[in-house]
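new request in #modeling-help
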Amino acid sequence: MKNKLKIKSALFGEAVLTSYAQIFFTDNKILASILVLVSFIDWWIGLSGLIAVTTAVALAELFGYSQIISKRGLFSFNSLLVGLGVGTYFLPGLDVLILIIVGSAIAFFSTIFLMGFLAKYSLPFLSVPFLIGMWLMLFSFPSFGGIALNTEALYPSNMFFKLGGNTLVFVVDFLNNLFADTGFETYFLSLGAIFFQFNILAGVLIAIGLLIHSRVIFLLSLVGFFVAYWFYSYLGMYQGTLNYTYYGFNFILSAIAIGGYFLIPSKQSFLWSMALVPVLVITTVGTSKLFGFFEMSVFSLPFNLVIISVLYAFKIRFNQTVPPILTLVQQKNPETNAYLYASQPAKKFAAFTNPIRLPFLGQWTVNQGHEGFYTHKDFFKYAWDFVIKDETTEKEFLGEGLLSTDYFCFDKPVIAPASGTVVAVLNAIDDNEIGIANTIHNWGNTVVIKHDLYLYTKMCHLKKGSVEVKVGDIVSEGQVIGKCGNSGRSPYPHLHFQVQSSAEIGSPTMYYPLFEYLKLVDSKLKFTSKGIPKENEILQNISTSDILESAFRWNPGDEFNLTITNKKSKERVYVIKNVIDSYNLSSLHCISTGAVMYYSNNGKSFSALNYVGTKKSPLFYMYSTFYKVIVSERSDIIVTTPFPVHQLYRFPTITIQDFLVPIGIFLKGNYKLTYTESTVTFNVQKIEMNSKIEGYKNKQLFNSNITVHNNRTIQILCTNNNNTKIQLKWENRLV
Amino acid sequence: MSKKIYERPILRKVVEGIPNKFGSLKRLRPVETIDNVAINDIIDEYGSPVFIISEKTIRETYKTAYCAFSTRYPKVQFAWSYKTNYLDAVCRIFHQEGSWAEVVSGFEYEKALDNNVSGSKIIFNGPDKSDADLTRAINNKSLIHIDHFDELYTIIEILPKLKERPQVAIRVNMDTGIIPQWDRFGFNYENGEAWNAINRILTDGGIDLIGLHIHIGTYITMSKAYSIAIEKLAALANKTFDRFQKSISYIDVGGGFASQNTLQGAYMPATDTTPSFDDYAHAITTAMTSVNFPNNETPTLILETGRALIDEAGWLAGSVLANKRLADGRRAMVIDSGINLLFTAFWYDYEIFPVQETSFQSEPTTIYGPLCMNIDVVRNNIDFPLLNKGDRFVIKRVGAYTMTQWMQFITYRPNVVLIDLNGKVHVIRKEENKEVFRIQELVPKHLQNK
């Protein structure tokens, strides 16, 4: 019982606190604490906010909603805003307290409804629930006779005197004088206005909080605001209006949302955040005129209107691989988003996470690629045709090529490109004679496999009667499903392969990269992590090494001993636990230090996704060593990828880089993994690899010699950039 | 206008065939070049006779074969059968293409090492392995294919002296419905010898059993035979896994793929009847993928193809020594290359072509080699154009077994040249001379009088 209470109060504490930070799209606790402090500059406003947010968290608990979402403050931050608003407008009183709780409830239920409604379009609800709650409050206010308006905030000096005596009044006056009649005065006032604190001190504190939390967000708040400030004067509007309407925060929040939060911060996202300012200004001026008729403030309406519609426009773009890129997973701040995004081997395909691989064995040639010359047009432009060519003669057939059987690819096995369920099969269409295309049964003998929601692959023109699977069969990756043939619209034998979003034969193609394949370039095999094969490329799947595969196959609940030895200190053992969360995200937890390494393993490649926590844990060496491992049997491939720079560099280097993120990432960390050829092919006892991270001018920052044994233990000899040698040993505790 | 070719008078009986207004024309077109290099130039420079090997053909054939298997089965490895042709240059071409080495003697094993094949990529086959051979091969981590119990006992006996654990496979013979059954190599499946051998190997504890080897015969393309063979091997592998928890890493199906040389007595020419690599690949991989190996693993498929990979790339060019008429009126031609160079002529009907333009007439001819032996017959009966003394000919598809089974009998062995991918000709084995033999010979003192 006591324990339960403890968990509950921890949940409440966290949910309430992060609600404050969530207004700036983060759950950073330092920023949240500053914001709580700011809200309590006027005790009544602060208290109103706190009551409102607690009410919302309590409602979420009462309804049994997700505690994970609740902890991030997403159910309650709109209620917080309503609470702060009501507190600003009305004097303390029991009746107002009831109003706050009612307003909070309105905002809460609006949140729930909008969340459900907008989630279908994967759009955020932003502060629309707050608008609904606040407007309802203000519209209904004239009907309540017994409630008095709050005038406290109108006389800030009185307020500060009560709070901190002469000193505070002096500080605030100093700030006022310092920024008087500059854009910064308006900027700080606008920042403060987000928390209904119409004074400079609040603004300055919030700005400091933003800077601590994220350099990019701080920069964006300045950019958004000052572009708008300039635009006001450019259009001949009095900039001072921003001082008493407090609408400036619309520009700040919009710039943060577009420039750094919903998009990965980059040149493009910054340009977009600036380009949207004129739109926001017009929306603000126009809506405030309209709302003026009702003697009502528009609050954050312009921000909500513009951001939701712009995000929708970005999200329904057909090609998501061109910048600006939408943020897929939110990390702790925008610069981390940018660094992690940039440190992927095929970053533009980051949104594609389900592996789809080549549907054949051995080496085939792309005979027609995307938007091909022959048939890959319009709805069907994102497809591939594969054939087998003789390497030396470049011919697709032996002899004269007048018979299907002359063609190298004819009758060759076609395999499932990923595991899934067979949803459509055609198997009775005759194979054509060479040169004749069957335009009635366009696709010929076909297999469609469902891999995930809205993710299907289709293999066409198979040989009549060769299809070995039937509808409903569950196939595993690499399983033979049929033979390459010459049926349908196929004048000569080839394999048509496409990814599509529905189950029908004849569905339009979908843009989707293929995963982990080898490409023959100048008679050397080059590894591609994700890519769109182009015409005439010669491709093959990678074969996996049993040893590597089993060494990186960890079960949920597995516990490992990570032993670290270096010259100076004695051997120390850390216990690492493998955990899978409810989102199916795998991670290794260092029990004694609390450090966490997130990873994914798609069967052919092991990727360290993120590292959170102290770098003193030896788990960080695991992260650096195994940032990207292809469990390949071949030793002649090289895996290269950028390494996240925020894990490599410290203050102040990384802080300078943080500010430069909108221009580009200049710090270097190049991860490279090479394999040592095993002396034996069969009965392999161990596999040796080397990984290194190189910085600017190929300076070696980290080097690891890795030995993976067939009993699944791993030995690593690391060398840091200061040349200290560390020995690690990784072994399963349960074995 | 060039001078008309002289045509000596002949007698000829009318042969069957559908005549048209030009008569029944059957003419052997000359083969003047190999890879665009004139054969005449080669003979002029390197003497007559001369073996000519085309690097281009070797590489193309290998790639075709590899493609046929690798596009049907995920793990495929070729091992070059040294006994088929162990000229270093030839072996190295195969190794460059990715082939391992398959050897059957200490001598071949040494050759493979000299060709920079790492020990773990040498398969040591055959019934003849000395203690020293075995010790060296095991210490080099080579794959030992055990042929009989005595070999197994030898390995167990030398175990304490070895530096590495032996990596072995056993050769298994079995009834696959093919007659004759090749039961002289390996352990029999049906009578339990193979299972017995596996038990002996794995109970010992010091030996790793990693593969199974079969060779069901030559010219076999019946899928049925392969599926029976592979089913039986899979059963063996499963039984092994159940008892010892050891899975089999590879299945070696041997070689035995026919080349396009026509066997004597065959009704149809081999070019029409010989199965292609695709036919073999289809039969074998279908069998491999339809059975279940233990632990859901996919064993590597090893192929020891020799003949089919090299035969096409070898040519033998030479000159006519004489023409004569035999007692029964048949024409005979004596050429400068006999069964000393073409041991294989005993079972093949080799295709022989003139190197230069000939007259339109041809006559059934017996072609003899130069040896002073009655059995020295290269072709018993061939409808051949009328060549004169000194004219040149070329024999097609002589890459396999000729340059390993040839003998130094009566005369020296000739030059072997290789035409590389750029059309450049290299001598890869020098013609022999008396010094070659003098070095080997010792004359006892009492015979050394001058």
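bot summary: The interface with chain B takes residues 360-364, 388, 390-393, 398, 408-409, 411-413, 478, 480, 543, 546, 679-683 of chain A (CB under 8 Å).
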